[in-house]
Predict the 3D structure of the following.
Amino acid sequence: MRLGITLTKLKGWTFLLVLSSGVFPVKSWFVGIFIALLLAPVLGFAQSARPRQLAPGILTVIPSAPAEEEMFSGPRPLVEIPTNIANLEKIQPNFAPLSGTLNERAKAAILRRTIWNLEFAFKPLRMITIDEPQPTGKMQRKLVWYMVYRVKNNGQHWKPIPKPDEFGNTTFDVQKVDMPLRFFPQFVLQAFELDNKQYLDRIIPAAMGPIKNREFPKQEIELHDSVTISTKNIEVSDERTDKSVWGVVCWEDVDPRIDYLGVFIQGLTNAYKFEDPPNGYKKGELPGSARVLTHKTLQLNFWRPGDTIDEAEEEIRFGVRIEADPVAQAKIFALYGVQERLDWLWIYR
């Protein structure tokens, strides 16, 4: 740390001792110099213990993208009710409207829920070679693909609040709420041009130390794998306090022929969609057993102009490859499932 010292004379015999880490009033020039020399080691240690600021462009931040339609499902039939209750349609009210019966309400129900979102940020997709223990007791050199990321809870999650009017009708307002969250991640690396071959993230204890030393040298940052990060409460961050949590996802035995790939991430939001196939639910089955759920998923697109001989992380590029030939470009877009250049997008899968 470079310690700058400035003494500014105030009224009488009072001076301001200005250090690079603070301002202190002192009574004399000699006392100011003495205090500066005394505090230099302490201030230098405090400066070195601060988290290292990443250079601009190193961390790519993906903002959360909540939508009002994610707060409800429907109107849609609740197929479990008429299937399990016999002759429900024959129940007729004497003093209430027909639309208020269970049979009619089950035909067009609206299911509402609170929607929360986490902000996701990541460092470049990289590679590292480690010595990994094998079941035989021997060590094997392994090339591991990994990505260091950060999840942040910005609060202001959307909660539906009923608002009845004077005529007995109910509408819903959106209330912004703050609450701690947990991140239960699922990472999938998918090779688009290799028949969409998929790689699930791996827990590799032998890789955690080398990755942390490489990405955060001499810093007291807790780096989690996909299991330990799920045990952490992610508190709400504000402008003054950042309560983000850092993690790393690893893949091994990735096919070196891969050129066009995507990383799919679930767990950043609880938004989902569902469909009930016609005649899919049968009487006596568990409710929702035939239901098809799709979860809101973040898709990160990458490409690498490399070969199978000498894999290098410098070849991995974030985004979709751009070609001058329109025909070749259309084929590349089709691999990623997009119609234009999108480095990242939200999908349901």
The two ends are 50 Å apart (CA to CA).
